[in-house]
Design a protein that fits this description.
Blueprint (H helix, E strand, L loop, with lengths): L32 H15 L11 H60 L2 H20 L2 H6 L1 H23 L2 E4 L11 E6 L10 E6 L1 E4 L2 E4 L1 E5 L5
Helix pairs in contact: 3-5
Length: 233
């Protein structure tokens, strides 16, 4: 006699669904709390508190603090670099200005020295015509007149003395006469007013000095007027 079924139940209702059977290997069926705690405890025994540093500070806070310090250091470094660059620029500018000042001092000293050397030049140029006149006057008094007339002798003596004194003053200030008789013609110091052949002389040689030239400390202030032999003599 078949078993009586309870009202509302079907034969399949009493069957177990395999999916409803408890599987201890299913993740949702396992309680991992104790296992996780045990694992964490084991790791802390090995490495210490994973959430704290050696000083007991939260590692998250420590990282943020380090980042903040890093950013601050980067800002300071950038500021230092800018300051260094400006300092180097200022140093270059200062060095340039110092060099310019030294050059200015050198030029000023050189100019002052030149001014000192050539300050007498104006006076010399004014005195040259006087010397020229005295030399021409002395040359016009020949030895015969000196011997025959004491007045001429005394006059010549006075002119010679004056010329000697002027020459001493000229020498004191570096003024030298250019009197190139029988010397090769030098266009930098001589002015040829004519050519004249002369037996036994080389070409372009000074045979007559019509007017002496003068130089002061090596700088020509008046060229000597001369007569030279021709180039093809």
């Amino acid at each position: 006699m078949p078993d009586e079924q309870k009202p509302g139940n079907t034969p399949d209702d009493d069957k177990l669904n395999p999916e409803d059977v408890y599987d201890p290997n299913k993740p949702e069926a396992r309680d991992t709390t104790e296992e996780d705690e045990a694992h964490k405890k084991h790791m802390e025994e090995l490495f210490g508190d994973l959430d704290e540093d050696d000083n007991g500070n939260k590692k998250v806070d420590t990282i943020e603090s380090l980042r903040a310090e890093r950013d601050e250091l980067l800002l300071k470094l950038a500021g230092s670099a800018a300051t260094l660059a400006k300092s180097q620029s200022d140093n270059l500018t200062l060095t340039k200005r110092l060099d310019e000042a030294k050059q200015l001092i050198t030029r000023t000293e050189a100019k002052a020295e030149d001014d000192k050397k050539f300050a007498i030049e104006g006076f010399i140029k004014q005195a040259l015509p006087v010397i020229d006149t005295l030399e021409l006057g002395l040359a016009s008094i020949d030895k015969k007149h000196r011997a025959e007339d004491p007045k001429f002798a005394k006059l010549a003596e006075g002119v010679e003395k004056t010329l000697s004194q002027l020459t001493a003053v000229f020498n004191k200030f570096g003024v030298k006469a250019i009197n190139p008789i029988n010397e090769p013609f030098d266009a930098e110091k001589h002015e040829a007013i004519m050519t004249q052949p002369k037996e036994g002389c080389d070409p372009e040689t000074v045979v007559t000095v019509c007017q002496k030239g003068y130089e002061i400390n090596g700088r020509v202030i008046r060229h000597a007027k001369v007569i030279v032999t021709p180039p093809d003599c």
